[in-house]
Structure prediction request, 131 residues.
Amino acid sequence: MELGQLPDGRDELADDLEAWGMSDLAAEAKERGRKQETGSMPVFIHHAAVFNLWADLWPTWKTASIGMGGCVRTGIDWQQAESLMRLSGVKKRIRPRMVARLKTMQSEALKTLGELSEKSTRTKGAKHGKK
Prediction:
């Protein structure tokens, strides 16, 4: 199973976008996924540990309901992060650095998810004649 791919082979991002009612962006994500090389993504070796932690934490993010529109990711579940670091053998002295890097990644991910949500809202409004 590849990063971002569900056990049945579907694209996780596309499924999430579809669940949030962002069909147009889901289609873009699926198309982008088809165009990308499978199986590899360059990661600098000194970022590998935090990237792997990030990938393991992605499914455990906290979410909030937005009514009939589905749900949105609100951030990392820090209890899960601490447990995962401990169980993975990350040394205590390294954990604060890992948390700082995860916070940076979380901040950027939330910005991107917010931009995707705004883009989807604008697109839906345009389809219904709203500005």
Remarks:
- Residues 61 and 78 are 9 Å apart (CA to CA).
- The chain has a mean pLDDT of 78.
